[in-house]
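Progress report, Aim 2. The chain analyzed during this reporting quarter is listed below.
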Amino acid sequence: MPNTSLIFSGGPIPNDATLELARAIKNVDLVIAADSGLHTVQKLDMHVDFVIGDFDSVDASALARATSAHTQAIRHSTDKDFTDLESALLFAADKKSDRIVIVTGGGGRLDHQLGVVAAMFNPKLREIKVEALWNSAHLFALQGPTTCAFATQIGDGVALQSFSNKSEKISTTGLRWQLDKESLANFETRGVSNIAIENKVLVSIELGQLLVIHESKGKS
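Predicted structure tokens for the chain:
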């Protein structure tokens, strides 16, 4: 079975629906908390294998409780040039993860939100399936050549946004407006507001970086 790592980001705690989706992920091999993401994991009463960060926003009592339960703490200096989440992602990659799922509540500072998405496209993660549960949305960071498929309900929203200068040879199935080996530039908005017309959507890309956002109908 693929090695799956679950990473809980810092910031606002995700809504209950997102937490239930995280709890339902099967065959998780590694649970990592990025700094105050530890609070989210403890709300789920889930064992944390590693907590990583400069610990500037995690509660000291929460950290003590985790380490007493054999969680390994990896502390970085506050004077660093990377985010705690990026460090957690690269740590999971070093642990030979085949799939990484980030759990985040979004919200909070805009630069932190953009930083989450940016870190998902680190070239060192190219061979790994990188996803994020972001409240009502499910994000997929694709670095071509690759393919992703996900279950949908008819009417769900699906958006495609290039995260490189140009994403090339994009093809889709299961969407109202299909792409067939087409390109999207990073300034184009042609990929937003698409709609699922089947119960499974497939997106493939040959070259470049593509963010896929699945927004479940009726969830918030």
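Residues 10 and 39 are 8 Å apart (CA to CA). The mean pLDDT is 93. These observations will guide the mutagenesis work planned for the next reporting period.
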